[in-house]
């Protein structure tokens, strides 16, 4: 916990340093939400071959982060985390030339059936 999935569009290739983003994201999560540690964070990236945004005009890119945490956090805590993650995304995608980046974050609870094992 937490489990973080980042879906990002091909136009971000070459401008979006995934590893640096993940490391900063883990630190941010640990500072923002009680009970989250850097060591507990796991981030995976999925590059989208194609995303169609609005009317399909070129010069647009998509990045969406799903951030799943253990239940029990308040709506205010989740909103603060979501905004902090969005601000981090914006700082990591600001240098993409001639591209409007559509960024979004969803913070949700892991189900009560969630289990993990580290060996």
Automatic annotation (TrEMBL):
Pfam families to which the protein is assigned, alphabetical: CHMI (PF02962)
Alphabetized GO MF terms: 5-carboxymethyl-2-hydroxymuconate delta-isomerase activity
Domain of life: Bacteria
PANTHER family: 4-HYDROXYPHENYLACETATE CATABOLISM PROTEIN
Protein name: Isomerase
Highest classification ranks of the organism: Bacteria, Bacillati, Actinomycetota, Actinomycetes, Kitasatosporales
């Amino acid at each position: 916990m937490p489990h973080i999935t980042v879906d990002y569009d091909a136009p971000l290739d070459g401008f979006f340093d995934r590893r640096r983003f993940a490391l900063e994201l883990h630190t941010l999560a640990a500072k923002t939400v009680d009970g989250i540690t850097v060591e507990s964070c796991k981030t995976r990236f999925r590059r989208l071959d194609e995303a169609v945004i609005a009317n399909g005009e070129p010069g647009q890119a998509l990045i969406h982060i799903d951030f799943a945490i253990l239940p029990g956090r308040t709506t205010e805590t989740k909103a603060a985390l979501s905004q902090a993650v969005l601000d981090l995304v914006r700082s990591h995608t600001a240098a993409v030339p001639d591209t409007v980046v559509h960024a979004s974050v969803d913070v949700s609870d892991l189900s009560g059936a969630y289990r993990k094992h580290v060996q």
